Each structure stands twice: as C-alpha cells, then as structure tokens.
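Example 3.2
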Amino acid sequence: MDDRYQNRSTAVASQLPTEDWHATIADPSVADAILDRLAHNAHELNLKGESMRKVKNLTK
C-alpha cells in the first residue's frame, strides 16, 4: 500500500464495513496506517441488498 499511495489506483473489496476494520485489525497502529492510506481521496461504494448467490439459487 505504501508504494502505491498517491501513485496508483487501488481497488479493495470487503464484506466488512470500514467502520469495523479497527476492531478487526489487532494492531491499532497498523489499522490506522492502512485506513489512512485507503480512506484518503477514496471513493467508497456501499452496496445493499441480497446476495446474488442467494437470488440465483432461489430461481433454479
């Protein structure tokens, strides 16, 4: 992340909401470093709705 910071685009996908990342990453310093780099100038997309896997399985 450090090498890409403000040089390249980075896409991150997670099922865990960003507000829960600090509690999930054991070391607070590491969590701060990761989130600072990811959140600065970020475009965040929060998707809602049922899982497409569930929807597709119901229609079979």
